[in-house]
Automatic annotation (TrEMBL):
This is YegS/Rv2252/BmrU family lipid kinase. SUPFAM superfamilies: NAD kinase/diacylglycerol kinase-like (SSF111331). Its cofactor is Mg(2+). Residues 1-131 form the DAGKc domain. GO terms for cellular component: plasma membrane. It comes from Saccharopolyspora hirsuta. It holds the Pfam family DAGK_cat. Belongs to the diacylglycerol/lipid kinase family. Keywords: ATP-binding, Kinase, Lipid biosynthesis, Lipid metabolism, Magnesium, Metal-binding, Nucleotide-binding, Phospholipid biosynthesis, Phospholipid metabolism, Transferase. One of its GO terms (molecular function) is metal ion binding. One of its GO terms (biological process) is phospholipid biosynthetic process. PROSITE patterns: DAGK (PS50146).
Length: 292
């Protein structure tokens, strides 16, 4: 079995040589490994595409959701399986796939799965005119938080997202949103919308708590117009997924969703900027093969 191991050495505040050595060792015990060090996003994307075009059986990526997103673009609807070894800040795709969040433990689990031939297929979301996503596509308040968190260099980890939330609350306001699915249309003033292939974004926040990446459907969470005080009251329940019980929150499930409205919102998916609304998103069942 041929495996390309793509490493972002700056992930998690820089990976130690000891950790990298252990990861490589576990994989080399079960397959032929070619290691590629990603120096930037462009290089990582090109290395992922080359691995797939060269017919690698497995593309294993070490890093956070950024490098995982690039790998998804390459592996989607291909014969190359994706293996995740999380070492980033959020690691939301790893959470969705129940991968151990410790890099060495994840490498050990990947090696066991490769030896046993354990692979499965999961769904992906696809935004027309943009890319694939494996976790959540969001727009509105949460995409502004995402953009701010991406610009910040301090603090590290989950606290960066929490600080970004507090700063963006100052400008909280609702905008017109139109959500079309095969079941109908809703129009309302909303503060955010999230479309989930899996449950979490923002480092483990289950914004679409019922999302299943293997059910052939996308889950939609819409937060309507609320005061800043009410929104602050909703925020603590995001961590438990109980925000969906709030009367201002609407949830839907669909195969295809069109998001529109006079809002000018920029959508983010897997934490990366995509395109401005209006945007059509579809579920692609079984589009990605994953190890484990």
């Amino acid at each position: 079995m041929r495996c390309v191991l793509l490493i972002n050495p700056a992930a998690g505040g820089r990976l130690s040589a000891k950790v990298v050595g252990e990861i490589v060792g576990h994989l080399r015990a079960v397959c032929d490994v070619r290691t590629v060090i990603a120096t930037d996003a462009g290089g990582a994307a090109e290395a992922a595409r080359r691995a797939v075009s060269d017919g690698a059986d497995v593309l294993a990526v070490v890093g956070g959701d950024g490098i995982a997103h690039l790998a998804v673009q390459a592996c989607a609807e291909s014969g190359t399986a994706l293996a995740l070894i999380p070492a980033g800040t959020g690691n939301d795709l790893a959470r969705g796939l129940e991968v151990p969040l410790d890099a060495v433990a994840a490498a050990r689990a990947v090696a066991r799965a490769l030896k046993a031939g354990e692979q499965r297929r999961i769904d992906l979301g696809k935004a027309a005119g943009a890319g694939w996503f494996a976790t959540v596509l969001c727009a509105g308040f949460d995409s502004r938080v995402n953009a701010r968190a991406n610009r910040m260099r301090w603090p590290r980890g989950q606290r960066r997202y929490d600080v970004a939330v507090v700063r963006e609350l100052l400008g909280l306001h609702a905008m017109p949103l139109r959500v079309e699915t095969e079941s109908g249309v809703i129009e309302l003033d909303a503060t955010l919308v999230a479309v989930g292939n899996s449950a979490c974004y923002g480092g483990g926040i289950p914004v679409c708590p019922g999302a299943d990446p293997a059910d052939g459907l996308l889950d939609v969470t819409v937060v309507g117009e609320v005061s800043r005080r009410d929104f602050i009251g909703i925020l603590p329940t995001l961590r438990s997924g109980r925000h969906v019980e709030h009367p201002a929150v609407t949830t839907l499930r669909a195969r295809r969703i069109r998001l529109g409205g006079d809002n000018g919102w920029l959508a983010y998916a897997d934490g990366e900027p995509q395109a401005r609304l209006p945007l059509t998103i579809r579920c692609a069942p079984g589009a990605l093969r994953v190890v484990g």
